[in-house]
Amino acid sequence: MLPDMAYAAVIRADTTAECTDVLDRVCKVLDLEPSLAPGQLTNDRWIARATPAGGGSSAIPPPGAAPP
After folding, report:
1. How far is CA 14 from the centre of its chain?
2. Which residues are CB-neighbours of 44 under 8 A, at least 6 positions away?
3. Is the pTM of this model over 0.85?
């Protein structure tokens, strides 16, 4: 984790499966947590976002999970 810096990882992919897979790997490697579950954009593209673990109420649960 980078001290005293605000940052986020944004994942763009061609499929929901690819977006979910990359989001999971990025979170594990960089000690992040999903803050935007994979969602479909125009042109059949998908986007997700991860932020530092412990983001509190700004974290958005993945689809199907109970809200905080």
Report:
1. 15
2. 14
3. no
Q: Which residues pair with 34 in a beta bridge?
A: 50
CB 67 within 8 A of CB 61: yes
* Strand residues in the chain grouped as ranges (E): 9-13, 32-40, 46-52
C-alpha atoms less than 13 angstroms from C-alpha of 19 in its C-beta half-sphere: 22
CB 45 within 8 A of CB 13: yes
Q: Nearest 5 degrees, angle CA 64-CA 46-CA 33? A: 55
pLDDT tens for 28-39 read: 998 899 999 999
Cα–Cα distance measured from residue 34 to residue 6, given in angstroms and rounded to the nearest whole number: 15
